[in-house]
Amino acid sequence: MHRNHFPIRRQKLAEQFGEHKIDAFFVTSAPNVRYLTGFTGSNGQLLVFPDEAYFFTDPRYRLQSAQQVNCKITIATGPLWPRVLAVLNKRKVRQLGFESHHLNFWNYQSMRAAVSLKTELRSVTGLVERLRITKSPEEIQLIRASVETNSAAFEQAVKAIRLGMREIDLAAEIEYRMRGLGAQKAAFDTIVAFGERTALPHAQPGPTALKRGQLVLIDMGAMREGYSSDMTRMLHVGRAPRKLREMYDAVLEAQLAAVAAVRPGVTATQVDQTARKVLRTAGLDKLFVHSTGHGLGLEIHEPPRVGRKDMTRLAPGMAITIEPGVYLSGFGGIRIEDTLVVSETGCEVLTQTPKLLREI
Fold it and tell me: How does pLDDT run across 308-349, given as a tens digit for each residue?
């Protein structure tokens, strides 16, 4: 991401201050700090004013922050908060906004005790997230590269699948392949489940060994240059039985219908309802226990939530997943997921890995 993007993002953030009646905004969420500064380290905080921004970190990141951050930098030996406080007092801040959903109660109490009695702390949620929800063309290209890395890692890992292989072995193989293709890490803990364990939507890979006749669920995502991808695909060892193929076809129909419903102006909940309607017709809606999808970017889960209650209207540049699934205890589960981006007229599915049930 070019360094010139970050002052523009900070200025857009400051343009919201009047609406929330704040003089400055204190950013502590690591993804939000990265979005506003480009800093990729583990300890950074940002204080944003309409005319300037102040970045705080510790001596470990002296060189890195100088290379990545293009606003005023303070290196603190010890806790960062005293140095933040010094700027607040110098600037005589009266109304300080903070990210209440990222600040625990202990840190809030510490802030409250430290700031001047003339400074009011204002809880503000979603200011940076509202900017992040619409991706720039540069961000979309980074997500696209992450998606391509993810799909290539999947194809390589599938070739390594053998009878007797454990779930945890396949998960390790997938993450090894991701890194070999340029990912910094997995975007989340890779989900691999065999047989009846596929009925667990967020199954943790374990020692279960692969057998003939089993269903395989792989939910994986790569993190590349800070941006996430997400994909779920299904395999079957040998010829899949009729009941399984019928369930798979219903989920695929729901997934394709939801993708087709994505376009500017449509609400996230309307997309969710589209998938549920298809599964209701197939008599499987009660087995669909999660939302149809979610936004993604610097984090694997970002707004909007493509679920029952999210009334966010989709707009060009939003990156989301579409992932309906059905889960039957004692039998297995099926989920099909793509990463896509909302376009001017509809959407572009970034995930190009085929969606037909793959029999191996």
Answer: 999 999 999 999 999 999 999 999 999 999 999 999 999 999
Q: Which residues contact 23 (CB under 8 A, 6 or more apart)?
A: 17, 49, 91, 93, 94, 95, 96
Full residue range of the structural domain in which residue 319 is found: 137-359
Q: Which of 132, 167, 183 is the last residue of a domain?
A: 132
Is there a single domain that holds both residue 221 and residue 310?
yes
Q: Which two tokens stand for residue 28?
A: 């502590």
Phi and psi at residue 354, to the nearest 5°: -55, 150
Reduce the secondary structure of 230-267 to three states and give it as a string.
Answer: CEEEEEECCCCCHHHHHHHHHHHHHHHHHHHHCCCCCE
CA dihedral sign, ordered 188, 4, 313, 123: positive
Select from 85, 314, 283 the least CA-distant residue to 76.
85
The enclosing domain of 346 has a CATH number of 3.90.230.10
| 341 DSSP β-pair partners | 319, 348
- Among 12, 69, 77, 16, residue whose Cα is nearest residue 39: 69
